[in-house]
Amino acid sequence: MGETFSWLKGHGTENDFVLLPDPDGTVHGDLDADFVRFLCDRHAGIGADGVLRVIEGSKQSYVEDGGAWFMDYWNSDGTIGEMCGNGIRVFARYLSEAGLTADKPIRIGTRAGVKEVVLNDDGTITVDMGEPSFPGPAGIVVEANGHQWPAVHVNVGNPHAVAFVDDLREPGPLLDAPRWSPAEAFPNGMNAEFVVRKGPNEVQMRVHERGSGETRSCGTGTCAVAVASARAAHQEAPVTYKVGVPGGVLTITWRDDNHLEMTGPAVIHARGEFSRSWLPA
Ligand SMILES: N[C@@H](CCC[C@H](N)C(=O)O)C(=O)O
């Protein structure tokens, strides 16, 4: 059967990931884009929106402070994202179920810095997502299927364009990545969120993720949407939003220390062994 490696699958509000345990970094070395694309392929591979390689913080060389455990996150098209909000909850769930940590909080390193993650008694997981920033410029426009909307740039470790729409059907099928102008607003691409307000502290959104297409949820996207919604309504921190996505609901608090706190579910729902001899030639 050749050399095998173990994998798991997990999801957070139906944003799904292949996890690759690689504690000392010797199982997968440097992941490559072709391998990630194959793993995420829903027909020929295992199928997922992204890959999370699980490596000890001291065994990785991507960032200075890798935390106790480092989340090596990849989008399904083989590109790297700085941060993944749903992924980090799934990552923490795996660490806990595998008995790899009992820390409270768990310090998880990402390419957007170390995040503190707490497993709550009610089964949810809370992540300190850090401080948002609003790099601008003013006057950003997002376009999909011939429709255009004004958008705001919110960075929560990765870049988001948040656009308020009248109806979530307005953007149409998000088969292609939404475009934006001016071009320099997002030099490294962006994740696009389309949002409708449901109540004073409740919104519903769709997301097209950079590198993964339209997904059923995006944790960093819900953070960007919560803070953009609060600012649009002239609400000040602390404020809590329920953010609905096609795959569930996340609770986002913009704390008075300016940090965003994300709480939501995460499950591991499959595991297996894979032989490298099964990889396409
Ligand atoms: N699904 C994620 C975001 C993953 C990264 C994103 N596609 C990017 O390239 O920035 C989440 O839950 O935050």
From TrEMBL:
It is found in: Cytoplasm. Keywords: Amino-acid biosynthesis, Cytoplasm, Isomerase, Lysine biosynthesis. This is Diaminopimelate epimerase. One of its GO terms (cellular component) is cytosol. Pathway: Amino-acid biosynthesis; L-lysine biosynthesis via DAP pathway; DL-2,6-diaminopimelate from LL-2,6-diaminopimelate: step 1/1. Homodimer. Substrate binds at N15, N75, G85, N86, N158, N191, E209, R210, G219, T220. It comes from Kribbella qitaiheensis. The active site is at C84, C218.
